[in-house]
Write a structure and sequence with these properties.
By secondary structure, the protein is α/β, with parallel strands linked by helices. It has a domain at 2-105: Nucleotidyltransferase, domain 5, CATH 3.30.420. 31% of the residues lie in helices and 28% in strands. The chain has helices at 36-48, 85-92, 103-111, 120-140; strands spanning 2-8, 12-19, 22-30, 53-60, 62-65, 70-73, 97-102. The strands form 2 sheets. The protein has a 5-stranded mixed β-sheet. A two-stranded antiparallel ribbon has the order 5-6. Strand 1 and strand 2 form a beta hairpin. The longest helix is centred in the C-terminal third of the chain and has 21 residues, at 120-140.
């Protein structure tokens, strides 16, 4: 069971595997001008390897529409209407719980942790916390989500549009 963290900054993509002591197997890519989704996809697949992914936490610079799971990436042209990042990652890893937060939220989450990271590493650490919390919530609650054999809380107001 593998948990991944992805940080989409204004100029760099970063992804890594989540372990009890932080994010490992970090990979970075400079943010391209247009094929940003394909770079995210390749980065996540590279970090995941052949393992089954159970949760993905995503930190993203830009405007997020939480209920729809879409994001308008900062500095990427051609994405003014947003992009369904959560849905796309769920298609890649159907068994995974996927959660997305803003870059600021993830940096604030990371600031509460004892490890002193900065820059994209701190944002990635916040995405790590999102993924870990989502996975724990999914495993410890009831009833199961639609199509999910693991346990999950009933959908809340913001999650009913998934």
């Amino acid at each position: 069971m593998t948990v991944l963290a992805l940080a989409i900054g204004p100029d760099v993509l970063a992804a890594g595997r989540v372990r009890a002591d932080g994010v490992h197997a970090l990979r970075y890519k400079p943010l391209p001008a247009t094929p940003a989704w394909w770079s995210c996809r390749d980065l996540l697949l590279d970090v995941a390897g052949d393992d089954e992914v159970t949760a993905v936490g995503i930190a993203c610079a830009g405007r997020i529409d939480g209920p729809a799971g879409t994001v308008v990436w900062t500095g990427i042209s051609g994405r003014c209407g947003g992009f369904g990042m959560v849905a796309a990652v769920r298609k890649m890893f159907p068994a995974a719980v996927v959660r997305m937060g803003t870059e600021g939220l993830c940096a604030a989450l990371a600031a509460q942790q004892p490890q002193g990271a900065c820059g994209v590493e701190s944002v990635l650490a916040g995405a790590e916390l999102l993924a870990t919390l989502a996975e724990e919530r999914s495993l410890l609650s009831w009833p199961p989500e639609q199509g999910d054999v693991r346990r999950a809380l009933p959908l809340g107001r913001c999650e009913q549009y998934r």
